[in-house]
Task: structure prediction
Amino acid sequence: MIRIGILGCGTVASGVIKLLAMHGESVRVQLGEEVEVAKVLARTPAKALALGLTEAQICSDFGEILNDPTISVVIELIGGTDAAYTYISEALKAGKHVVTANKDLIATHFQELNDLAAAHSVRFAFEASVGGGIPLVDSIRRTLAANRIQSMFGILNGTTNYILTKMTQNGLSYAEALAEAQRLGFAEANPASDVGGGDAARKIAILSTLAFHSPVSYYDVYHEGIAGITPTDIRFADQSGFVFKLLGIARQHENACEAYVRPALVPKRHPLASVSDSFNAVFITGDAVGEVMLYGRGAGSLPTASSVVGDLMNVVRAGRGHTAAALSCYENLPVMDILDSENVYYVRLSVQDRPMVLARVAGVFGKHGVSLASLVQESRGKDSAELLLFTHRASERELSAAMADLRNLDAVHEGAYWICMEDDA
Amino acid sequence: MIRIGILGCGTVASGVIKLLAMHGESVRVQLGEEVEVAKVLARTPAKALALGLTEAQICSDFGEILNDPTISVVIELIGGTDAAYTYISEALKAGKHVVTANKDLIATHFQELNDLAAAHSVRFAFEASVGGGIPLVDSIRRTLAANRIQSMFGILNGTTNYILTKMTQNGLSYAEALAEAQRLGFAEANPASDVGGGDAARKIAILSTLAFHSPVSYYDVYHEGIAGITPTDIRFADQSGFVFKLLGIARQHENACEAYVRPALVPKRHPLASVSDSFNAVFITGDAVGEVMLYGRGAGSLPTASSVVGDLMNVVRAGRGHTAAALSCYENLPVMDILDSENVYYVRLSVQDRPMVLARVAGVFGKHGVSLASLVQESRGKDSAELLLFTHRASERELSAAMADLRNLDAVHEGAYWICMEDDA
Result:
């Protein structure tokens, strides 16, 4: 008999309890032992009762779980970095395995908690912290472990992917698409963490930490959201053979790594381009495996519970024992300044439509060493026009300096730029 | 120090030796121990020497590996079911972990070898036996273990996917595309196992065995190849919103499962439709996780070696110990007769272009209870025409009976039919 304690009683916890009830017999046969939900830490007992739990299973004091020696696995589904951090640390120190779906915590405290688990010969599993039910964490840590992972491009946030899909397919503005997403439950009332890129930043931080064996924290990850993307951008990308996606991008170099979240133009024939609606996917390039893409539902009660219960089964199977500390951050690569990254860029400039503006704009790019690959000028009536252009590969430092200069020209009203994913990326 | 014995010296073995040389240090750090290639069993010592092995590392007698107590892991890369079966069995009985890329063997002897490993408390790993470097086996056995897998649709053979991609994109006939694939090394001189579906059948047998916890052998898997697909089929599928793919299809039912390989029309907006060239992908639906797709290179020296070395690292990490026998075939579902399966079908009939033929054809379908969803008649000049039609969902038994009757009509010259993947499949 495996007795587990579950912390929290929200969406994912209810999925875990439901899934264990649905497939209790299959879990029992696969593990050779029954899994019993011994205790659920619930702030609101009524919610726990509504899930079919008995009063005896519900507790409001973590000590009841921590100090119960018959509970061997703690599943943390509270989220955040405060109580969750304390509970997980104490559970590991008490010799209990821990499974968590907590991206906030893993994106900031991975190394410390992983080392703590190793020091106490217990397992610490967090497949559900990135990409919901998609087998990402285990694939990177186990199946692809013989690779040097060169790059990862991830659609890691379902809300923004839903919004960008609607902007692309139905011609909606950002505000209209966001409102629709909120109406249908794909975006929260306060969507800041999703649309601003913070949620995806946590996830690419976790993936980078594992893939590069380096401590990449959420705080190291530059991120930009999608609110500045206009229907003009979407249309011009489409005409040029691209679709907009919010990407978590990570690359490994000799002595450093990159990790950031940016809206990007993805070539239509790239596998990521057809990842629509609220689906997530990560495109990974390893030096042995070549290109791999893992696709699925990045959120939701049962998809996330699928990873949590999978982890639970795997920590039980693995049992207590020495965890190679080497799974930790032995490469220790620093995260590069975003200004040192290089990409191809798409730039949109609103300019006065009068002689010499184009020459002056081109001159500014040239002065900063940014070479242009193509440029289209579209009149907006009266004396206003938009310049839509692609650069050749350039450094962010040069491009952002050119954009700063351009915004100072009185002939330029507005300027925005996005990454353009190269076909061989 | 982990000393390993490698059986075979072909494409995958050379990839494994190369990869261990490339990333020896990273493997050492991750395992906390160095991996040493102790012995390579090579029929042609010259090939092994060309890989940089020393004479002392090369042997021609399996006994030198089997009887060396310092060798703890055997990597079998000979292929086939004869010598490989004997070597693997003996290695497991001798208490050595075994890693293999051998799809022929796993697709016919999984249960027996898995049980043998469990009986001797050693690990038996075969990630590379399906889908080259794609993390398929571990994802199904571990991360998705809490799901009831409802269905799998897999593009599991790179040769046929390359041929179908060229037929679709460049309008080539099957013979032309096959010749091009052979010229470029994507198809072997004798392509029978690839184009006939036998290779994909072995892979969907393995995936079904794992996903359904049931002994699905290659011999249980009905398979059809792609040679009968004509440019007319490709063009009509395109006009109707589909692309042709050779699919391994598996579904779990209450008391049985389906597993077969068939050419199929895949809706263009389905994620599998954009899996082109020699790439592989498997689209999995689980009752908790929903839809997951795993995509990558299904063959090749280094991609396959990526999975082999990943397995090697995982068996070393796991170490000796009790392997839950439950990972074996406890569900024991039988494989359904293909005639009991149900699908939507696309049918092409060459008919005499004269009055009443259409009525007679429709009458035959009606007599067998096959309901037609749409039908197009295309004249082929003189008195010849082609009927291209989609059925509603029908059983294979009814459809094949209808086709047999139709082929007996003197007005019907030829008839072929393919599966049409439903959008919600």
